[in-house]
Amino acid sequence: MLKYQIVIDDLRLAIKNGTYPAYSQLPSVSKLCEQYEVSKITINKALGELEAQGLISRRRGSGSFVKKVETSSAAPDANDTSGQMTGFLAEHQARGESVRTEVYDFSVVRPPHHVAEALDVDDDSFTYHVCRVRRANDIPRVIEYTYMPIDVVTDLKLKNVQTSIYSFIEKDLGLKIASAHRVIRAVMPSAEERKRLNVPEGEPLLEVEQVGYLDDGRPFEYSVSRHVHDYEFHSISTK
């Protein structure tokens, strides 16, 4: 077995068994070099792979931090994916499309238990709850249900929800959005979703369940997005 793979397997096990718990910092590259008696190149390659697998977050000048990763009840062959975090507004404006957002719920609530677990908060804590329909060129494309901890995403306003929450998080709060874990499945829409998205009865939607993470490993978002049937998901996987 290659040396970097030994490091990967050992650190992955240490993360999963709690030796390095969520949000903890891994030893420095220099200390890992001493521990495994390998070069910095080998350690950096191993850390890069662990980051690609969504287990750690690397911050220039600060080190590597363990991310909070929840297990999922999805089918055994379902793949969680991590990729570039691009919001709906930026994605569609880049295509030259006009974007409009219809917000029909913006409130502060106690999250359901499964949401609290995903966000690593207590059941009696408070989160923002956002429900909105996103339109591109005035065509409804997706309905979104989002929860965000109020002590992580602070001072969120309706005007931010009506435009880009991601932009507010990075530009106004100065936080860095790093990655997401996603589960993708086909679902049948509710009567309300059919009406809001203007889809016929019997037509499925593509659901994306997502937990978003900051670069320090903290989860900042739990969302369920239900897209109209012609939505395409593109992913790049590395080995």
Question: What is the topology?
Answer:
Elements: H1 3-16, H2 29-36, H3 40-52, E1 56-59, E2 63-66, H4 88-93, E3 99-109, H5 113-119, E4 127-136, E5 139-149, H6 158-161, H7 165-172, E6 177-187, H8 191-197, E7 205-214, E8 219-227
Helix pairs in contact: 1-3, 2-3
Keywords:
239 residues; alpha+beta; Arc Repressor Mutant, subunit A; Chorismate lyase; 2 domains; six-stranded antiparallel β-sheet; two-stranded antiparallel sheet; 8 helices; 8 strands; 29% strand; elongated; transcription regulation; DNA-binding; Tscrpt_reg_HTH_GntR; GntR family transcriptional regulator
Commentary on this structure:
- This protein is an alpha+beta fold and 239 residues long.
- The protein folds into 2 domains: 3-66, Orthogonal Bundle (Arc Repressor Mutant, subunit A), CATH 1.10.10.10; 88-227, Chorismate lyase (3-Layer(aba) Sandwich).
- The protein is built from 8 helices and 8 strands, in the order αααββαβαββααβαββ.
- It has helices spanning 3-16, 29-36, 40-52, 88-93, 113-119, 158-161, 165-172, 191-197, and strands at residues 56-59, 63-66, 99-109, 127-136, 139-149, 177-187, 205-214, 219-227.
- Strands 3-4-5-8-7-6 form a 6-stranded antiparallel β-sheet.
- A hairpin with a 3-residue loop joins strand 1 (56-59) and strand 2 (63-66).
- The two termini are 15 Å apart.
- It holds the Pfam family GntR.
- Keywords: DNA-binding, Transcription, Transcription regulation.
